[in-house]
Amino acid sequence: MRIEAHTLARMLSRRRGMELGFKALAVTTLAIALGSLALLLLDAIADGAGRLSWQFLTSFPSRKPEEAGILSALVGTVCLILLTAVFAFPIGVGAAIYLEEYAGKSWFSRVVEVNISNLAGVPSIIYGLLGLELFVRALGFDRSLLSGALTMALLVLPIIIISSREALRTVPRSIREASFALGADRWQTIWHQVLPLALPGILTGSILAFSRAIGEAAPLITIGALTYVAFLPDGLFAPFTALPIQIFNWVSRPQAGFHANAAAAILVLLAVLLLMNALAVFLRQRYQKRLNL
Amino acid sequence: MTATTLHHLTRGRYRERAAHVLLFFCGTLSILTTLGIVAVLLFETLAFFREVPLFDFLTDTQWTPLFADKHFGILPLVAGTALTAGIAVCVATPIGLVSALYLSEYATDRVRHLVKPVLEVLAGVPTVVYGYFALLFITPLLQTVIPSLSGFNALSPGIVIGVMIIPMVSSLSEDAMYAVPQSLREGAYALGSSKLQVAVKVVVPAAFSGIAASLLLGVSRAIGETMILAIAAGQQPRLTLNPTVPIETMTAYIVQVSLGDTPTGTIEYRTIFAVGMMLFLGTLALNLVSQWIKQRFREQVG
Amino acid sequence: MGLRHGTTWALGLSILTAAAPAWSAALIKIDGSSTVYPITEAVAEEFAKAQPKVRVTVGISGTGGGFKKFCNGETDISDASRPIKMSEVQQCDAKKIGYVEVPVAYDGIAVVVNPKNDWVTGMTVRELKKLWEPAAQGKITRWSQLRAGWPNKEIHLFGAGVDSGTYDYFTDAIVGTEHASRGDYTASEDDNVLIQGIATDPLALGFFGVAYYEANKGRLTLVGIDDENSKNGDGPILPTFETVKNGTYQPLARPIFIYVNSKALDRPEVADFVKFYLTEGKPLVREVGYISLPDPVYELAMRRIDTRIVGSVFGGKGSQIGVTLESLLAAESK
Q1: Contact at 8 Å (CB) between A55 and A65?
Q2: Does B89 lie in the same domain as B42?
Q3: Residues A83 and A154 in one domain
């Protein structure tokens, strides 16, 4: 079949046009996605930057927007995440160690694996329902810091397990085999050889998991974290509030003054998240350099 | 063998045993969590169905469990959830797929290393922040274009949820496209195809199951979303496909009742578990189908 | 390396123990009506300045929700925008909870629309009943169905949820039967949700305590209510300080209360708080947007607290439309 020169030229230029068109489309869509993020940040900064002050960080909530602050929410968030870490970190890493080092490829470990990836996809509010029935009601912990931390620990456990397993997998087999050859048992090998090498990855994954947990409000609302808490939690069984809940409460109020407060609290929350993510990246880089992995 | 060595060895055996048992329990905790979730939901849902017939629950078109004239039809809440998730998918699919295609087939390594992490940030923003954005920025913005838009509606949170799941759709689809063997592309190039033709006619069909799996996961995420809807969508359960009026989703209903802290044992308390059960089953089904599609895809490309 | 684990544990536990000087810190738990909430919140805030060691938590589960917890012994004080009902009295009796009924303010339930609504100049009780009664569900959906001449556009309704005392009182006063209303509207115990909805929707109509209107004046339009009873004023009456106090804003004017667990009054912090409520709380009532009671009523209320008079002057019959507090309290003191 013979194609005329001008038909071929037309076909080629049409092809070029479509390529260009697609590139333009792609750039536009990426611009929409990234632009939305920029818009969101700019909106929060525009609304809330004016409210950021030492007074805002150290005051309790108030009915007057100008006097309200996030002290109880900020401290509540910090206490909550630390307590969550106390529960979730050892159990999560322990589970990962068990699955990677002890369980092998049995049907049991396969079931647990599938189960964990399903749990990672369960909506967070379902964890709230579990926490409500189990910790708040059945075990009688009531709407306390303890119930909140236990619920959040269950929520982040699958993520910690998955990321810790990945970290354990990066440790070469040769290290384990050398350790066994020298007469160490499995636990000694793990504790003295494998864990130290995998720790940067485990820490990074866990910090990222906790930074996700910090932004969660739905499970905490379900277990009953209150919104008017004008004091700092003084023990495991104290009522508490947290930054996302305070933001939710302020957004729901119609006065513009509270919207500014919500935006300022959002900036504080994003700053905390940024800090945690930066910490994770820093830890990973520092230990990778040290251990040459 | 000296006494000390024997002593160390015996201690080591106990320690090994203890470590094994302890770690075993850590490992099984995840199973216990799943059992816990199922047990809690099942217990309260069964108590719920002792008072409300399953048929009514699934077919009644009104959801007024707290009023004097009680109706327990879940359809209005399901409609609200489906409407917002549908809008979210309409936003995320084109943007996510085009981005994935561009990043996988066209972009240089440098662009990819720059753009991907920034896209991931979209997924890391807390949902209350998105809720704030939806209610106080997007809704007023949309109201200038659609004057009849209510302050609470399905359109605004739907769009924002869509933006939130873009990274999920984009990165999972891109993984699927990446897995397509280079030989397929090279064959097409050899036959004279343009880059666009290769991308659209070869890579996308080959990666189709992976892309479908990513879309299903995106839907599942949109269905399970709570805070954006609790803030911006409203609290009026109604069976409608109109995105400009207040609605209520399954997740927002659970939040609404929880804010009031209903006492145990009442029918209102049980409704949140019945709704939670529907939510759990729905997202579980989507996740399982998505995993099955990915599994089949892996076997196909092999 | 074991240090890492250790550090996490140590940090966590130390934060908790460091901040735990008084596990038995004085804590007053309050829950209930979202109508009364702004006053209680203001009082709690000012009280904290006077007695910083006492912690006060305030929830908004709604009047009904608050009573459920109160009669279960879970809270010390219950905010209520209507008097206690017979079923709740029975619940409290069953758990041997004695309660002191303390009126704190007058409230008018305001009916509001969006400022862009330019056709409503007033509504009659009859029109409101037609709009809100159970039979209206799914049927009365357009403004033109209420009054000829109003536009043929959808009505978007917002109102108190069923756990709200405002809901109980509104249905009793407007529909005639307590707890009877249509169910197809945006119902919330959180009045801020309602304000947000009405202020951003030109076709909206809703009701809540007048204090919330006062706090959001520029974004909402108040609707005068005409009860077609010339004895207390002709035509649509708007709820103001005067009209609520002198009883011309009918039928939507009512007293609001706090109920105090009589055993909790034995604790000095609770007694101080309630007394603070009735003394320093008076200007706060006005500041928040409610109508303070006449001084003699506050004195009668104070006497009830001091002498621990339990029970309700309303006899467990719940809200009574059009009865003044003075007459009831005076009748009791006889």
Answers
A1: no
A2: no
A3: yes
Range of the domain at B38: 3-51
Chain C CB contacts of B62 below 8 Å: 183-184
CB C85 within 8 A of CB C63: no
Query: With contact defined as beta carbons under 8 Å apart, do C241 and C192 qualify?
Result: no
Specify the amino acid at residue A211: S
C-beta separation of A127 from A219 below 8 A: yes
Mean pLDDT of the C73-92 span: 89
Which among B224, B122, B104, B113 has a CA at the least distance from the CA of B172?
B104
Residues A20 and A156 in one domain: no
Q: Is B144 on the interface with C (CB under 8 A)?
A: no
Sites in chain B below the pLDDT cut of 70: 1, 260-264, 298-302
Using one digit for the tens of pLDDT, what is the confidence trace for B101-111? 999 888 888 98
How far apart are the CA of B42 and the nearest CA of chain C, in angstroms? 25
> Minimal CA–CA distance to C256: which of C29, C34, C28?
C34
A150 and A102 together in one domain: yes
Q: Tokens 């939510």 belong to which residue? A: B279
Contacts of C201 in chain B (CB under 8 A): 150-152, 246
For residues A181 and A145, membership in a common domain is answered with yes
Q: Which of residues 239-258 of A touch B (CB under 8 A)?
A: 244, 247-248, 251-252
Q: What is the ipTM of this complex?
A: 0.88
Residue of C nearest to B233 (CA): C197
Nearest CA in chain A to C47: A230
Report yes or no: A170 at the B interface, CB cutoff 8 Å: no
How many CA atoms, within 13 angstroms, populate the side-chain half-sphere of residue A247? Answer: 35
- Segments forming the whole domain that contains residue A284: 57-291
Q: Left (φ > 0), alpha (ψ -120 to 50) or beta: where does B251 sit?
A: alpha
Task: Indicate whether this model's pTM tops 0.90.
Answer: no
